[in-house]
Amino acid sequence: MISLLRKWRRHLHQFPELSFCEYETTAYIINQVKDLPGITIETGKNEIGIDTGVLVTIGNGRKPIIGLRADIDALPIQELNQHSYCSSFDGVMHACGHDGHTAMLIGAIYRLSELYEKDFLNGTVKCLFQPAEETEDQFGKTGAQYVLESSALDDVESIIALHLDPEIPLGEVKLKEGVVMANVDTFQITVRGTGGHGAYPEQTIDPIWISSLMLPALYSMTSRKLSASDPFVCSVCQLNGGTSTNVIPNTVTLGGTIRTYSDHARMIISKELKSLVNSFTHLGASIEIMVHHGEPALVNDRDMVAILKESIQIVYPDMRIHNQTYGMGGEDFSHFAQVIPGAMMFLGAGIIDVNTSLHQASFDFDEQSLVYGMETLVHSVLLRLRGDQHA
């Protein structure tokens, strides 16, 4: 199976597609599974709420019904690796492991289809290849929200996902119940002053100067209304202004992100950010700030975490399980976990002597992790469906 998993992953890696544009990826997935016994395929806006992506159902609707999810989109990153299967497209790369997630789920479908054909599958499995995890569209929605709105998963009773992690070695996982990833909010600040000649700053209200004073305040934000155990991060990631070396511009814009674990912190930090930014209006500029609330924090269901842990202990008893959060990143799987008992596990995939991380141009992972992930998905399904004696 490793050779098939590697083949699927490398093809997907070589032909990445950005969020909402995963048409060839969708066609490739369908071609890999369409002839397997016991499956039905749903795709397109009328079926799953969005043009790209695939929902593959194994079984005849018999309960219980469990969901498996893999994300399929790539990122706008220029790859720096030198593999023979590197991205064929300039500025587009699978730098978050979605090619691996997709390959693992295809492999799981092969295994589960075999079990269904032997009458060993005591229920139904819905396998979602979800588009647009990385990016919201113009309506502020990601792929998960469109799939949920379509009702395609209304009968799913629980759901599982895996995420590759190149920062921990092969043979280790991160798995924890409760909050494991952050709320994702973005902000846009517009500082409108009065531009003019760079030689005569006294004739202007300089938005660059005002922004330069604002930046240290943003980077050193604290809140006396939050517990020290309730973390948050505020990062400025965009700074735009000016077109000439001797002209002070009229406007500067700043953009960034706020990450929190709790709804309370999300509300408090959003409010205090707006108050902090508006405190700089005394310098004469007109300042606007907009905060957009994106995906919620990912909360792992206790029972689903227990199933994942039991599966790992059965299949890979020497696997080391880290009972820790996954950091301040965000995941739109959280939309599913809000309405369906669900859990995501971070799967160790680090390559010895390769120092990289998610969303980096050097991102890579040990392909042996694909087998670990596929087997964990399959055995978790069997445990959830109480058919583990046939694993």
TrEMBL record:
Cofactor note: The Mn(2+) ion enhances activity.
The keyword RNA-binding belongs to this UniProt entry's keyword annotation: no
Alphabetical keyword list: Manganese, Metal-binding
Span of domain Peptidase M20 dimerisation: 185-279
Coiled-coil regions, chain positions: none
A GO term for molecular function: hydrolase activity
Residues that bind Mn(2+): 96, 98, 134, 163, 359
Keyword Metal-binding attributed: yes
Annotated Gene3D superfamilies: 3.30.70.360, Zn peptidases (3.40.630.10)
SUPFAM superfamilies: Bacterial exopeptidase dimerisation domain, Zn-dependent exopeptidases
Entry cofactors: Mn(2+)
PANTHER family attached to this UniProt entry: METALLOPEPTIDASE, PUTATIVE (AFU_ORTHOLOGUE AFUA_6G09600)-RELATED (PTHR11014:SF63), PEPTIDASE M20 FAMILY MEMBER (PTHR11014)
Name of the protein in its database record: Amidohydrolase
